[in-house]
# Entry
Amino acid sequence: MKKIHLLLIKAFIRPFFVTFFIVMFILLMFFLFKYIDDLIGKGFEWYTIAEVMMYASASNVSMALPLAILLSSIMTFGSLGENYELVAIKSAGVSLQKAMQPLFALIICISIASFLFSDYMLPKANLKYGSLLFDMRNKKLSFLIKPGVFNNSITNYGMRIERKGEGAVDSLYGILIYDHSGGNGISKIVMAEKGKMSKTKDGKFLILQLFNGVRYEESNGSSSSFNNRQVLTRMRFKQTEVKLDFSSFGNGLDRTDENSFMNNAQMLNRKGLTKRRDSLTKSLDTLNKVTKINASSYYKQNNYLKGYTKVKAKPVVINGSVLNVLQKTNRVQALQNAFDQSETIKQTLNNRLLDYDFKVKEIIKAKIEYQRKYTLAVSCLLLFFIGAPLGAIIRKGGLGLPVVIAIVFFLIYHIISTVAEKSAKEGSLDPTFGMWTAIVILTPLGVFLTYKATVDSALFDVDYYKQLIVGLFKRKKKD
# Structure
């Protein structure tokens, strides 16, 4: 039995790692296609881009791991069935359940590891990923100048270029610079055919080397001159340098404090999610009590005598309209006061409702993320019990039919879980039930496929269905 166990484990591990890294690579490419405009061409160092890609890969484990288990289990048992190794194992008196036991133990270990990963490592990776991506998307670089658009990101300077050099970000053509650093309200204008950008070693200044241009400077005339006219100076140059202050942009990427992102549910572990859910629930109860007190206070009528002595008002029976009680001269003022009071109540309740809806949604998100810690581990077990029997039934290995079947079943699981999670976020479903909907629906399928594989059912055998259809036609002819 130990040799059979080692055979099955070796047959499973190789396709598992291959499919896992292939899926991770595909999901990483999707990430790059989505954020390529925010990452490429902004002058980031290669290790900064590699860091954000690493954190993005950690967030893709929740999708790549179940798919890799499903695909590798189908390929493993399909290859064993195609090579008649599964038949030899069964002929030796080893049932399919016993043959699955070593892989079942391995999947349990992977599920436990995935649970620990989602509870301890994934929140930290999401925190690093979210803060770093936010900083990269909002970083201002002075040399990121779009052709045909004025750039005022550098203090006291405005710049426009006609085009950039092909394949070189630092080569510029058709340069126009407005220099407002004089402080006298009169700008200097510099025009050049081409130029090249570079930074000083300390990163505090941006050096623009300009070629074949002209500089225009306008200044007031001397106070001793007769007419005190303005003087325009034009200077042509073949080569000159303009030194721009780059210190306000920092030496590289300015990082935001990660604590400002800690309120996101995806960046908390189970303990943090429980604490956030409880604090939001208490805040919600307090909000309801305060809103009730404030709203009811507008409808209370207090009668005071002189000296602010409170007296109990006698009940008054009013026949017809309330306005009939008031004098005609006071009716307009009473209506205006009632209208102002109702508008105040309406505005107060609207503001409280916005706060109420926000806190309810945050509580739902905390519950969803709390359940996600468990559903990732259970989904690995579920998809194994779907993939292993499927491989034993179809008896096909390789990357052909197993890949197609694995993608179909994974899409079913992913669509159900995505729709249920979205419904839970909108409040249509309970968050706990919404996160476990896909597992509840597909668990009977896993039990059914395991039973069919145990009894050697020809569930996906095309020849079996052909013979069945031919037999039906023959019966009809005989009848």
